[in-house]
Amino acid sequence: MEGIRSRDLLRKIKEFTLSILEDLSEGRSPLISIQRFRIYCANFDSNCGCRSNKPNGHEILTFQKESHVHRIDVLLRVLLIVQQLLQESKHASKRDIYYMHPLVFSDQTVVDRAINDICILLQCSRHNLNVVSVGTGLVMGWLRFFEAGRKFDCINSSNTAHTIPVLVEDVKDIVSVAHYILIVEKESVFQRLANDKFCSKNRCIVITGRGYPDVSTRRFLRLLVDKLCLPVYCLVDCDPYGVDILATYRFGSMQMAYDAKFLRVPRIQWLGAFPSDSENYNLPQQCLLPLTMEDKRRTEAMLQRCYLHQEVPGWRSELELMLQRGTKFEIEALAVHSLSFLSEVYIPCKIQEITSICHI
């Protein structure tokens, strides 16, 4: 999927549209078969393969079903836009595409689904379609690279935030002398580490997706991991949303399960925060928040994901403990000890713990 060429995609688009026109001209209702992918399920069978990149069944779209007509209309309109982007070597965001036909599309999620359907039909990744996400990720630390001829020298200003490139395929000549990569869930934690000059003191690279990471952030992280072969740690809030963000980095998202193998980073290790940290680091009761009903529902749903059961049972145990205790807390709660406790004590200790375990 990663290396597919524009001319091959244009050929596939032509073949697909011609097959629809042929059916219509002969009085047949076209059948559009879309493979379905998933990355988790509730099947604890050891033979479960739901997190593979193999399709799991098909969905057939047809003009004979009224509920499918609008979806096919949207799919073909978006496909026409994609064809134009490829022919003119231009790029557009999903939001750009939505505003080209807002009355027809009615909602951004309609466009998102069409783009995913097209990726599956053409067997490609979203960036192959020249559809890009609006980049929100940030990076700092011991890293230097070029993107479309522009030099990004993070090393000479290792505590300064740089926006992660949207066109990750244009990133070249990556150089780094970092010891590890640290992913943090939130921009506030990223800025805390920048203020504490964490990167220059610890010779590392720090990345944030500002919550749930966009595709560019995940592709950029995957590129760094593949090129630099560094340990990767992830720091998230001790709540179900934090763990879900962690899982998105490591296993991929449901929405883009068809492309998970190019976006996930299986080597990521969970650095924290864990439910047990509230005791280990003496957080006062005032720092703990009760799980809401939505938190509990999300946690229970995550516990049904078979990859937690099979691949990271320790994560599953932490989720069970969170649910049992009925509390959560934010990473910033560690500031109760001191403003720089996170950068000077917590993170170095956590990394030392993991390193010691790996060397046993």
The tally of strands reads 15
Separate helix tally: 15
Biggest beta-sheet profile:
6 strands, mixed
Q: Portion of residues in helices? A: 40-55%
Shape: globular
- Pairing-aware structural class of the strands and helices? alpha/beta
> Which class of the largest domain in CATH terms?
Alpha Beta
First CA to last CA: what distance? 39 Å
Number of domains: 2
Order of H and E elements: HEEHEHHHEEEEEEEHHEHEHHEHEHHHEH
Give structural notes.
This protein is of the alpha/beta class and 360 residues long. The chain folds into 2 domains: 6-132, Orthogonal Bundle (Arc Repressor Mutant, subunit A), CATH 1.10.10; 138-359, 3-Layer(aba) Sandwich (Dna Topoisomerase Vi A Subunit, Chain: A, domain 2), CATH 3.40.1360.10. The chain contains 15 helices and 15 strands. Strands 8-5-11-10-12-13 form a 6-stranded mixed β-sheet, with helices on both faces. A 3-stranded antiparallel β-sheet has the order 7-6-9, with helices on one face. A hairpin with a 2-residue loop joins β6 and β7 (150-153). α1 runs antiparallel to α2 (66-88), α2 packs across α5 and α12 (293-302) runs antiparallel to α14 (313-325). The protein is globular. The chain starts with 5 loop residues before the first helix and ends with a helix. The model has no long low-confidence stretch (mean pLDDT 84).
